[in-house]
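Homework help thread (please don't just give me the answer)

Our assignment gives two proteins as sequence + structure token strings and asks us to describe the second one. The first is just a warm-up. Here they are:
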Amino acid sequence: MPDDKTTVAELRRLLADFVAEREWAIYHDPKNLSMSIAIEAAELMEHFQWVKNAELPALLQDAGRRADVVDELADVTCYVLALANVLDVDLAEAVRAKMKRNAAKYPAEQFRGRYYKPAADKKGE
């Protein structure tokens, strides 16, 4: 089912069922899952390493290379969902809350079409 027909909860259940069927919960702790996210993100980045921006459209039009990129993106997403399961994080709420903080930190009127690092706030971000 496509994105507009699938909920985050359904994807989380899909991951939870996959892990349970294999009895992998013993390996799925926050440390290992966060490391796996980083590893898979690095594998995703490898597909773009040394590729010039002008070459990206051709790279992504190549069916095999695009499929490899999609697989790595799916791997990252699967580990994110698995970590959300382990930490019992409501991803939809977490994303909404983060976007609200981002909107306050990067007001559209001030940042439209440009980016710079705003002054650090109280949390040192």
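The one we have to describe:
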Amino acid sequence: MADPANQSALVTGVTGQDGSYLVELLLAKGYTVHGLMRRTSTFSTERIDHIYQDPHESGARLFLHFADLTDASALSRLLHEIGPDEVYHLGAQSHVRVSFDQPIYTADATGVGALKLLEAVRDYRDTTGKTVRFYQASSSEMFGKVHEVPQRETTPFHPRSPYGVAKVFAHWATVNYRESYDLHASCGILFNHESPRRGETFVTRKITRAIGRIKHGLQDKLYLGNLDAKRDWGFAGDYVEAMWLMLQQDEPDDYVIATAETYSVRAFCEAAFGRVELDYKDFVEIDPRYFRPAEVDILLGDPTKAKTKLGWEPKVSFDELVAMMVDADLELAAREKTLTDAGHVIVPPMGE
């Protein structure tokens, strides 16, 4: 295993939930980290602002680069400019429900984007002779209409959304490049992983965000879709450690990363509202707009392989995760209430 203090890594999706936790982990281990982000009209770096410093300052080890996963030439140039030891591919159009509304873009960014990055890594390796280790963020949504419970590395894929289909493409492209070109390329089949940094349109954060606003009188109702869908929910901060461990192995491989426990959306609501001594039934209403055209009824992962080969274990329990997210959003809503009382106009999150 190489000395992390002399290692550099490229992280796509660096401003997302997983990207922010992974950057924290890599910096703590002594890496120099390069983050890839899309250029937009707003500089959306809130999740990493607490660890970002001026790249011109002495000792800076986090650098941000603008590039798009749909631009193969930009990805290739960036690889040659940075020369990373490891590439963590987390970037994607990652919202399942949105993928039904934007299937072409999802396929291009989430699926073909991974192939373009793999090709850039292969070209860089072949041109320079330097070995690059590659991590692909695969997803439990690839299992979709599950063929067995729990799901493991050998379970057949049956995706039920354009997002799931795109992730299957990216997953098999990674396996193909590993087998065809001898790339050190591994796939982490991550089941649902949440945190206070989760985007507000994802169901867990949508719930905890609403609870904070309801407690502070800023919102009356929460509108959700299928309350009976079951998911294997873990803490994102635990899951990025598994990503790093995969790239420290002598041989690349694919791993299911999960808690081996499943809870319904309804159970999440019960636990989250219970944290503030409220009954979710008094506030949650069903809105058909939030139902998927094709539902994934149950996801439950078997992380035995990751535990055995990587020595990885989830540390944060379901109840601890729920409490962490609710408490953080109570604080956020309290600050929002202060601004509202002072006459500032606050745009409510989706779901009110």
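TA reply:
I won't write it for you, but here's a hint about the kind of observation we're looking for: The chain has ten helices and 13 strands.
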